[in-house]
Q: What sequence folds into this?
């Protein structure tokens, strides 16, 4: 484990999903692999409120092999594949209240040389400025599904609290009825690694 990074405890993940989505901003997402440790400051998140949120995979309590972990305790890892990209979410809400927070972007912190080997980019700000980009750079895969963020190899540590938080509509969910207009996306203003 990165010597000065300690994973956040379960109480942190037990807060309401919208609050968690904001609280994750500035925290450090860490992944340990055989290549070494990579990490980044979380700069963008999206909240998905389960049963009543048409944009959520667990809308109407849809329980499938893919969404099963969303019904577990908060602080679990929910990964899924979209357009060949692996996306990573933090399970939130109480047990059997399937909610989650998508980590949309991070600002590279440690292990940048490893990230650049995995994702060679011409513009550095493109390295982790999107949910599929950050997982490839950090080495987060579908094998992380169902694990806990409370301990390595994939965990979240306390970082630096942002001075301001911006809020707006989520991205890429046009076919989700009125849910497409919910202001459940949060980001650190003016950070170059925010996805859009």
A:
């Amino acid at each position: 484990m990165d010597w000065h990074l300690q994973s956040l405890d379960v109480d942190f993940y037990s807060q309401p999903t919208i609050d968690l989505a904001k609280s994750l901003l500035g925290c450090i997402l860490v992944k340990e692999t055989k290549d070494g440790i990579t990490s980044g400051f979380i700069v963008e998140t999206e909240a998905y409120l389960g049963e009543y949120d048409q944009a959520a995979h667990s809308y109407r309590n849809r329980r499938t092999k893919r969404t099963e972990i969303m019904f577990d305790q908060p602080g679990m890892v929910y990964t899924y594949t979209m357009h060949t990209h692996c996306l990573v979410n933090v399970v939130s809400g109480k047990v059997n209240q399937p909610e989650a927070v998508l980590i949309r972007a991070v600002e590279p912190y440690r292990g940048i040389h490893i990230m650049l080997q995995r994702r060679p980019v011409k513009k550095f700000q493109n390295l982790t400025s999107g949910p599929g980009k950050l997982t490839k750079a950090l080495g987060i895969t579908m094998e992380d599904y169902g694990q806990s963020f409370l301990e390595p190899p994939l965990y979240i540590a306390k970082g630096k609290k942002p001075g301001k938080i911006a809020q707006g509509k989520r991205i890429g969910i046009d076919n989700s009825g009125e849910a497409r207009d919910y202001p459940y996306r949060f980001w650190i203003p003016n950070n170059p690694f925010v996805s859009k």
The chain has one domain: 10-187. The first helix runs from residue 10 to 13. The first strand starts at residue 28 and ends at 33. The beta strands are 28-33, 36-48, 77-82, 85-92, 99-110, 154-157, 166-168, 185-187.
